[in-house]
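Record copied across here:
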Amino acid sequence: MLQESATWDLQHMTPEPSTNMKIYMLFLFGVCIVTTVKLIRVWRAAPPFRLSRQASNPNYLRLLQTSGTSLKQWIGLTVLTSGVFASGTLYDFCRGLLMEKRTAREMILFAIQDFSTTLTMTLLVVLFSFLVRWHTLKRLEQLRQGPG
């Protein structure tokens, strides 16, 4: 009778995201949607490379100002939310480690991998929001300076 031994390839194991992680990913997705909607509103009024159409429109200037301010608030909220999420996750992880009799190296590596993934997602969303805000403020600056 042959015996087969099963080995686990830990490099290809992906743990199921926690409920908190799923909620946080939903939040990040929501921030991306809000940012995209703001960009579309700015572009709908004056498509890229046709900014001069709105040069004398005070409503468009107001839209750019409010969009820039709102995006700044969303960026701040995203950074603060990521800090709260990371802190709570780290606390839960450490509490779980204290309950274990023996700590496996793999658990710590999975936690580091999870934190790096979360940080990467957060930074990408913040970068996207920052670039849209930068674009919005650049348009505002161009309109205030006028042609020339």
Notes: The CA atoms of residues 7 and 13 lie 12 Å apart. Residues 59-139 form one domain.
